[in-house]
Fold:
Amino acid sequence: MARSRSGTRGRRGPRKPPRRPDQATGPSVQVAEPSERGAIEIPATVTVQDLAGLLRVNPADVIRELIKSGIFATINQTIDRDTASLVAEELGYEVAEATAPGLAEEPVGEAQPAAAAKEPLWEEADPSKLVPRAPIVTVMGHVDHGKTSLLDAIRATSVAAGERGGITQHIGASEVVKDGKRIVFLDTPGHEAFTAMRARGAKVTDIAVLVVAADDGVMPQTIEAIDHAKAARVPIIVALNKMDKPDANPDRVKHELSEHGVLIEEYGGDTPLVPVSAKQRTGIDELLEMILLVADLQELKANPKRPAIGTVVEAELDKGRGPVATVLVQTGTLKIGDTVVVGSTFGRVRAMENSAGARVTKAGPSSAVVVLGLSDVPAAGDILQVVADERAARVIVDQRRAQAGAKAEGGARATLEDLYRQIQAGQTRELRIVIKADVQGSLGAITHALDQLSTDEVRINVIHEGTGDITDNDILLASASDAIVVGFNTRLDPQARRTAEAEGVDVRVYDIIYKLTDDIEAALKGMLEPEVVEVVEGRAEVRQVFRVGRGTIIAGCYVTDGRIVRGGARVYRGGRVVATDRIESLRRFRDDVREVAAGFECGIGLAGHHDLQEGDVIECFTQQTVSRAASA
Structure:
């Protein structure tokens, strides 16, 4: 059936109905009848030639439509989905919203057409194909409470019992066997790595073992580990370590755990507690039995006959072997020769090594293997999935990169600005917050004030609270949980600031409690006023203090980070804010200057604060007014 186009339409105008043959006024394009075509799917990026093949038209017709829209593209040039959709609509096609193409469907090894493939499905459509799998366990807790010693004791016990199972200390995961059942322990160091993987969308852990020293009790990192496990909705087993010490006080630990929401079974809760001694290797069998019991209650299953889906535990660039990644297969079976997509890279599996360092040809569910053959080094937490072929892999990677760019531009993370819009659209019922304050008293007052702000539309959920500076770990937790970070009389350390910018986490620091609560209340009501954004320009360390004239103090400083400019300033002493002021004078030698870069010395005079001491840190900042999205 011949069709033609008379005139052009705007890029955002409504699609014109298909023209009849008697309306033809120009060169015709042969396409199928609408009843024969149906809606077509267009990937995130596609070349002009591939689009012409998808539409079953001559590439010249696609190029002609692009030129009408002001786009001069060659036959091999890549265009985005929006542009391709406009071309398809001009040619009379109906465009459906596309899914990520190229994922291999069951059975393993059968390649599917790229246009018919879908995103990875973790849930199995046919429950009859599921078989039990080994639990994946992460050990967390406070520093020096015996996490590494406990893992070593578990490995040694397994070896002494003569049980099989690859046990290693260099590929990121350890396997032990208890009563003929495998248990996989992640060797990732602490809850920082656990949360970093969650921040990338990887739910790796089935059970969290919380190690608490019986002679030390619940410590700050113990509380963080509890909050991280709760945020991930992972069941907790408490391993009460160092029970062999004379000053062990298990009752005190149990009481402290209950204060932080971990109620053990002895107290009527649902959290198991197992007394152990990593040094004397007692209680290890009981701990493994408890892990298997909790795993049985979870009914962990996977389908070994489907294409593999897994998570990268760690990765590096090996000089001799190229990019290598330790992958924990969570469902399906990974085989030599499989084409895989891992995050924003892809490749073909050339070789695999198990935890004992031996070459293997396949890896089933809950297996850790080193994978060789990727084109680039992936990040920890990236998802590995088997796809049909290399072409499908390239399309998926291009789409993910495009989505990552759009996310970076659009800022998809939760912010106070768009909170009201999300509430009105029914997209959120909960505002998650990470709170850091200078002292415990402030923390209690802030938490109580925020509790009063919860409404029928949205509940405020404080997923973690603590004292001290806002750290990189706080940012990762907020990123993984889609939360905002609120600080009171504290500061954001430089590494955390960089991570917040990279992850798009909304961080707000206040020095007045009512200003903090007013902002959040206004966000809940959609009445946020234009935001005053604080930009930290740099920091300088006071090396010497000079008294000039009557009551005038000049601080001889060395700029350690960023740049120092005239503007607002905070004075930190011992990590705490002692004054908020403004920089009145800034000099290099005898000259007044506008700014001083990192690595140089300068003289700083504050307007009102004159109690400066050697070792103080002066942080300078500027403020910018930005309109609130929620006010629109």
Observations:
- The chain has five domains: 2-96, 134-300, 309-400, 419-528, 534-626.
- Residues 2-96 form one domain.
- The longest helix spans residues 390-410.
- The chain has a mean pLDDT of 77.
